Amino acid sequence: MRLFPSFSLYPAGPDDLDRLITLYQENEDFLGLWPDTPPDSVMVKTDLDYSVKTGGNFLAICTVEGVFAGVVDYISSGFQGRPEYAFINLLMISPVWRRKGLGTAVLAEIENRIAVDPRVKEIQLAVQINNPPGKAFWESQGYTRFTPPSLQTEGTMTCLYKKSLG
Q1: What are phi and psi of 87, to 5 degrees?
Q2: How many degrees, rounded to 5, is the angle at CA 144 between CA 31 and CA 6?
Q3: Which residue from 51, 105, 160, 161 lies 20 to 30 Å from 140 (Cα-Cα)?
Q4: Over the stretch 133-146, which tens digit does the pLDDT of each residue have?
Q5: Would you report the helix, strand and coil content of the chain in percent, each value rounded to 5?
């Protein structure tokens, strides 16, 4: 797969709420995996608040033309109080930009940013068991499952995946 030629990342926040709501609504196929949770302003604000609360980096993904093409949220180190763990909370690409290398290119950039901290040895993330395309993407990027499915508080079933750095 070719790498996406160019994109930019910038911190997304309340000023981007309308664009984020539109992006979330475009991704109803992904967000519909959660039980009874419509993609709306409450969901977006909850994600933004969660990112702040956990020390995350909630970033908008824009194409070189300035098109709002996705979001990524990650904790660069200190996941669960352990400096050796980073965690990717969310990588969501608008359907029109999927399968064009954008997700792979963004992930490579995020992994490079995380790897700058020599304490970080592993990146973790959760994948819903009812998300075969997500599972296939993460496995194609070198992530391996290391937990059995577990029920989350919002009603989803997820498995944890990891990738070692270095």
Answers
A1: -145, 135
A2: 60
A3: 51
A4: 889 999 999 999 99
A5: 35, 30, 35
**Both tokens assigned to 102:** 């954008």
Say which residue the tokens 């908008």 belong to. 60
89, two tokens: 């909370």
Alpha helices in 9-164 (DSSP H): 17-26, 28-31, 41-53, 102-115, 132-140
Identity at 65, one-letter amino acid code: E
Q: How many residues does the chain have?
A: 166
Q: What is the pTM of this model?
A: 0.90
Does the domain spanning 7-164 belong to CATH 3.40.630.30? yes
Residue 126 per-residue DSSP state:
E
Instruction: For 20-65, write each residue's pLDDT tens digit.
Output: 989 888 877 665 554 556 667 888 898 899 999 999 999 999 988 8
Among the listed residues 30, 1, 57, 7, the one whose alpha carbon sits nearest the alpha carbon of residue 135: 30
Q: Are 125 and 139 in contact (CB under 8 A)?
A: no
Q: Report the alpha-carbon distance of residue 152 to residue 164 in Å, rounded.
A: 24
| Strand 157-164 relative to strand 122-128, pairing | antiparallel
Q: Which residue has the tokens 């997700």?
A: 103
